[in-house]
Amino acid sequence: KAGVTQTPRYLIKTRGQQVTLSCSPISGHRSVSWYQQTPGQGLQFLFEYFSETQRNKGNFPGRFSGRQFSNSRSEMNVSTLELGDSALYLCASSSFGGDTDTQYFGPGTRLTVL
Amino acid sequence: AQKITQTQPGMFVQEKEAVTLDCTYDTSDPSYGLFWYKQPSSGEMIFLIYQGSYDQQNATEGRYSLNFQKARKSANLVISASQLGDSAMYFCAIRTQGAQKLVFGQGTRLTINP
């Protein structure tokens, strides 16, 4: 079974631009979560989607948004990029999103904002 | 709110030795799952092992085992017979019932010396 895939793997943007990251979950997984990883803040939860509905959102500004499609693929969008948005963005999928449900991560998208 | 504490920022171990990575957690939820992930320099988070709060026995997966002490709120990862390829960042994480997110610790950087 194929793992979680994320595209693109690397992105370089300038301040003020917007960016869209894509995530394809493991086949059959309906829950997709997004995390931001930075050296200073560590791994922080952005949001989680299940069956096209956002069930939980982390403490990030409204510039960060996401969505999930009927095939469980997910996208996240960051508008009006700031230097502090430079990070590794990780997507994870799981079957149903419960506390016993293992999240499997993709390789990440490394975003650099200049 | 949930919290994970990993008190060892870095560890250096000789190849073939066993190593224990510490993890303590804090939650008031009686139902939760504890996870360990490995992150090599490539960035991808690799799932290693899971322990449920109601599990009676400590989890094991190949060379990985989890020393789960519920009363002490401790979930230490034990790697037996370490290998050079074990050099990576290791993260402990918790997920509680009803919460769709993983809460991560700050991680431990493990270096295996030949």
Task: Describe the 3D structure.
The complex is a heterodimer of chains A (114) and B (114). With 114 residues, chain A is mainly β. Chain A is built from no helices and 11 strands. In chain A, strands 2, 4, 5, 6, 9, 10 and 11 form a 7-stranded mixed beta sheet that branches. Chain A has a 4-stranded antiparallel beta sheet with strand order 1-3-8-7, with no helix packed on it. In chain A, a hairpin with a 2-residue loop joins strand 5 and strand 6. The termini of chain A are far apart. In chain A, 37% of the residues are buried. By secondary structure, chain B is mainly beta. Chain B is 0% helix and 53% strand. Chain B has no helices and 12 strands. In chain B, the strands form 3 sheets. In chain B, strands 2, 5, 6, 10, 11 and 12 form a 6-stranded mixed beta sheet that branches. In chain B, a hairpin with a 4-residue loop joins strand 8 and strand 9. Chain B starts with a strand and ends with a strand. The model of chain B has no long low-confidence stretch (mean pLDDT 95). The interface between A and B is medium-sized, with 27 and 27 residues.
Give me a quick take on this structure:
Chain A is mostly beta strands and 114 residues long.
Kindly report how far apart the N and C termini of chain B lie. Answer: 41 Å
Assign a percent range to the helix content of chain B. Answer: under 10%
Total of helices of chain B: 0
Order of helices and strands of chain A: EEEEEEEEEEE
What is the beta-strand fraction of chain B? over 45%
Largest sheet of chain B: 6 strands, mixed
Mean of all residue-level pLDDT scores of chain B: 95
Radius of gyration of chain B: 14 Å
SS strand fraction of chain A: over 45%
Output the helix-strand order of chain B: EEEEEEEEEEEE
The main β sheet of chain A shows up as: 7 strands, mixed
Q: Determine the mean pLDDT of chain A.
A: 95
Tell me the number of helical segments of chain A per DSSP (H or I, 4 or more residues long): 0
Structural class by helix and strand composition of chain A: mainly beta
> Which of globular, elongated, flat, extended, rod-shaped describes the shape of chain B?
globular
Number of strands of chain B: 12
Helix content of chain A: under 10%
Multimerization state: heterodimer
Q: Structural class, from secondary structure content of chain B? A: mainly beta
Low-confidence stretches of chain A: none
